[in-house]
Amino acid sequence: MDIDIGITRKDRKKITEGLSRLLADSYTLYLMTHNFHWNVTGPMFNTLHLMFETQYTELALAVDLIAERIRALGEPAPGTYGAFASLTRIKEPEGVPAADDMIRLLVKGQEAVVKTARELMPVVDKAGDEPTADLLTQRMQVHEKTAWMLRSLLAA
């Protein structure tokens, strides 16, 4: 059945392509954060272990919202490691980094998700897609705040 929500098929396609990149970035960041939760060591272990758990739990919920928005706009959501690897801008580290490096990598990952969301906003605005704009705004707020909190751990 055709979708008739006031957004052209062409615009929906552009939006879902951007949302697919956002989904890939978010899932990659989820996986990295969960990995760091399992493998962090050092004097800040308890703080980071709990903080990373809060962050990956939030990301697990977020990826579902993003994928469901892609589906609501009429496209299939990517859902494989291969698809995510080809769409994400986040580079995963080799091995297990030191705790401070984990924090730095997560800051970069959080900021990468913000950039992906922000790049999509003009397309969404032009199409008049307020629900996606709302989703993007919420994601940017969460990731900017999380990046700030992580950066604060590195302050001298």
Automatic annotation (TrEMBL):
Residues annotated as domain Ferritin/DPS: 17-155
Gene3D superfamilies: 1.20.1260.10
Gene Ontology terms for molecular function: ferric iron binding; oxidoreductase activity, acting on metal ions
Top-level division of the source organism's lineage: Bacteria
Matches recorded under SUPFAM superfamilies: Ferritin-like (SSF47240)
Pfam families: Ferritin (PF00210)
Similarity-based family: Belongs to the Dps family.
PANTHER family: DNA PROTECTION DURING STARVATION PROTEIN, GENERAL STRESS PROTEIN 20U
Name the record gives this protein: DNA starvation/stationary phase protection protein
